[in-house]
Write a structure and sequence with these properties.
- By secondary structure, the protein is of the alpha+beta class.
- It has 4 domains: about 180 residues, Beta Polymerase, domain 2; about 90 residues, Hydrophobic Seed Protein; about 170 residues, no CATH class; about 45 residues, no CATH class.
- Helix content is about 50%, strand content about 10%.
- It is built from 23 helices and 13 strands.
- The strands form 4 sheets. It has a 7-stranded mixed sheet.
- The protein is elongated and about 90 Å long.
- The two termini are about 45 Å apart.
Length: about 525
């Protein structure tokens, strides 16, 4: 893996409606984008066109809506293997279910209470929802479902103008009552109604605004930012699972920094990820330590730059980490969350954060559990946070074989991610220091490669297994066997492979020092 280098700013998706200072040019680009998007959608999903004819023959309207339409405008439609379409219709749910049952290979009730029916035909999956004009209980985010009468009214109730566009089927008419195409041309995020009304109905939309800043590279309109700031505490009525889903999508986007800065700047992060704004420590008067918040965002960007191309095999012996990688990005974001709790001002004006990696690992696990992350992801991220400073204890290059073995063994399958996290954690502007740290880590990786080839470090085990330990000590299963195993593992890490005879001699010597040993241990 190459040494760390300056991190390029991630590129935004290129829309089919480029922004222009010339209003006439923008209008022409919008018109061209509309025509191109319709053509792309109908080519992309011919099954949807056929379904539109089915609904039309039954006297009902049908339209493609939401993400697929927006992505067609942006030129982001993926391949046929990913055909998953959202549609809306004038038909009521019972009629929708009847038509889908006749059209598809299978159909299912996604949510009768919400007017949504799903179906599959070949590789195409559709979800069809009856026009809605919902009312919301302002004490929760659950809508009181009211079916609507028109496509335009259905679109106006949606979260953002860029998601409030539709293509009628089967005639291909483009419907854009809220100016979503215009907003994509200007790369700005607006709500169809006032943002206060929209967010009062569904506070999760505030998280989505940050997500779209990350995934689509859109600038959030000032009025939307103002509403998010004023209504930040409304996010507390949203379930942790839904917040986590939006946070994951934000972090996996092209511009996670933009989304995170929006959450922090509006105060929403105080409610969903308070450890992040807490990193905005007051700089001491002598500027003896970095702005931890800015450092963290830079580390995140540098970690992203070190990910391997999407789709590359990784996470195993090949050392690759295909992007976007949620575990690496979470670890980069949370690696220093223990610093505020461990900050100490030392004599002479210095600042220390002793053991912040240990404290941070515990804080990371607590926050991720609160956000309902799965246990495996939580364990991996917390472990990386705990290990992220391990390298700096040996940054001078004094790596013994024992230290290398322990580094690899403690990281386990997380080693490729730990490599990237550790390199990313160097944000110094001192080029000499940065070069020295990069060279030291190059040296460590070379040592790891050499020892892996010589000793199969990826699966370090004692020279004797559990059965051999019990036979040597003439004991049955129990705590003694576990202690003996750990003793032999420590010897293996310190000295490398011993061989069975030497390991058995060491085991007997250890056993002779144990208070519970029999008087005549068997060899």
């Amino acid at each position: 893996m190459p040494s760390s280098s300056p991190v390029p700013t991630p590129a935004a998706p290129t829309p089919a409606v480029p922004s222009s200072g010339d209003p006439g040019g923008v209008a022409a680009a919008v018109l061209a984008a509309r025509e191109s998007a319709v053509e792309a959608l109908l080519d992309f999903a011919p099954a949807a066109l056929e379904l539109g004819e089915v609904f039309a023959r039954a006297g009902h309207e049908l339209a493609l809506v939401g993400g697929p339409v927006r992505d067609a405008v942006l030129g982001r439609l993926s391949g046929p293997a990913d055909v998953d379409l959202d549609l809306t219709t004038s038909a009521r749910p019972a009629e929708t279910e009847r038509l889908l049952r006749a059209w598809g290979d299978a159909s299912w009730d996604v949510g009768a209470a919400f007017g949504t029916v799903g179906a599959r035909r070949g590789d195409v999956v559709v979800e069809v929802t009856t026009y809605r004009s919902d009312l919301y209980d302002r004490a929760s985010r659950k809508p009181v479902v009211e079916f609507g009468e028109s496509l335009e009214d259905d679109l106006v109730r949606r979260d953002f103008t860029v998601n409030a566009m539709a293509v009628r089927l089967p005639d291909g008419a483009f419907v854009d009552p809220c100016g979503g195409l215009r907003d994509l041309a200007h790369r700005v995020l607006h709500t169809p109604r006032s943002p206060e009304e929209s967010f009062a109905d569904d506070p999760l939309r505030m998280m989505r605004a940050a997500r779209f800043a990350s995934t689509l590279g859109l600038r959030v309109a000032p009025a939307v930012v103002e509403a998010m700031t004023a209504m930040a505490d409304r996010i507390t009525i949203v379930s942790a699972e839904r917040v986590r889903t939006e946070l994951e999508k934000l972090l996996l986007g092209v511009h996670p920094r933009a989304g995170l800065e929006l959450l922090v700047g509006t105060g929403i992060a105080e409610h969903v990820l308070p450890e992040l704004p807490a990193l905005q420590l007051e700089i001491d008067e002598h500027h003896r330590h970095k702005d931890v918040y800015e450092h963290t965002l830079t580390v995140l960007e540098q970690a992203i730059a070190l990910e391997d191309p999407p789709g590359a095999d990784g996470g195993g012996d090949d050392g690759r980490v295909p992007g976007p990688d949620l575990v690496l990005r979470l670890a980069a974001l949370l690696h220093d969350v223990g610093k505020p709790a461990t900050r100490r001002f030392e004599a002479g004006g210095g600042v220390s954060f002793h053991h912040h990696e240990v404290v941070g690992a515990k804080m990371t696990a607590r926050r991720m559990k609160a956000l309902r992350f799965d246990a495996a992801t939580t364990k991996q991220v917390a472990r990386l946070v705990e290990l992220h400073l391990r390298f700096h204890g040996y940054a001078g290059g004094e790596w013994t074989d024992s230290a290398v073995r322990r580094y690899v063994t403690d990281a386990g399958p997380l080693l490729p991610r730990l490599h990237r996290l550790t390199r990313s954690d160097s944000t110094t502007r001192n080029q000499r220091k940065a070069s020295r740290l990069a060279a030291a880590y190059d040296s460590l990786e070379q040592r790891i490669t050499e020892l892996q080839q010589a000793e199969e470090l990826a699966s370090v085990r004692p020279d004797l297994d559990g059965g051999q330990i019990m036979a040597t000590l003439a004991v049955g299963p129990g705590p003694v066997v576990g202690r003996a195993y750990r003793h032999l593992l420590e010897l293996r890490l310190d000295h490398g492979p011993l061989g069975e005879d030497a390991a058995r001699a060491e085991l007997l010597a250890w056993w002779a020092r144990q208070p519970e040993r029999p008087q005549e241990p068997q060899g």
